[in-house]
Amino acid sequence: MLPAPDAGLNTMFIGVSTKMYMGYAQSLAWLEHLVAEVDARPALAAGRVFPFVIPSFPVLPEAAQLVSGTPLVLGAQNCSWADGPWTGEVSPGMLAELGVGLVEIGHAERRRYFAEDEAMIALKVGAAVDAGLTPLLCVGELEVSEPATAADTVFRQIKAAVSGDWSVASHLVVAYEPVWAIGAPEPASATYVSRVTAALRDSLGQHGLGGLPIIYGGSAKPGLLPQLDGVSGLFLGRFAHDPTNFGRVLDEALAGRR
């Protein structure tokens, strides 16, 4: 299971989502290699670096068996806002029953292509928390901005996602993903990410949440994490389709937590 979100800045989260890039068999073969990367690093058992993996929905039952007994936490890429008569949706309660520990909510692609607004995201966050899942809340500005401006945009997204109830925010892991950096050749600069994160922590600190986990995503890859200040980990995408890259980032996280 994930640690409490207030576990402090010394806790790191390193995760990867496959989106819909892999088929069923390919996903499971890749996941076996990812498990091997995690098992090769017994220092993860100390619980200061938490790896997580978010495959496609159909993979979740078998993925739960593959990661069982390892430090890997299983995540889902989305959830419904409630149980009930919602054809094609997947409830947070069912995800929890499958062994899912966290659920991605509010990704830029969901906001843009599936018209998920702040009200819908808030409903999903509340439903996930009620089901005992950790919401991995994706937030980020559309265009390159001054760091303070970007941080203000992100802070407002977080506030909307919890409907202004900061007790709900205490359950989150925040994935800061500048929309303009998603799928780009390179991530946002380390200086930019660090400054946005620092400003965001100042705003969250006014509500007692300055230590909330904030991980960076957006073309994140090996070599970035050691350059970042105040960031609680990385949310990887296509660069971790090579499991050895995931292992390299785990090593960077472990090296920073000794």
Automatic annotation (TrEMBL):
Pathway: Carbohydrate degradation; glycolysis; D-glyceraldehyde 3-phosphate from glycerone phosphate: step 1/1; Carbohydrate biosynthesis; gluconeogenesis. InterPro entries: Aldolase_TIM, TIM_sf, Triosephosphate_isomerase. Belongs to the triosephosphate isomerase family. SUPFAM superfamilies: Triosephosphate isomerase (TIM). It catalyses: D-glyceraldehyde 3-phosphate = dihydroxyacetone phosphate. Keywords: Cytoplasm, Gluconeogenesis, Glycolysis, Isomerase. GO terms for biological process: gluconeogenesis; glyceraldehyde-3-phosphate biosynthetic process; glycerol catabolic process; glycolytic process. It is found in: Cytoplasm. GO terms for molecular function: triose-phosphate isomerase activity. It holds the Pfam family TIM. Homodimer. Its EC number is 5.3.1.1. This is Triosephosphate isomerase. It is an enzyme of class 5 (isomerase). One of its GO terms (cellular component) is cytosol.
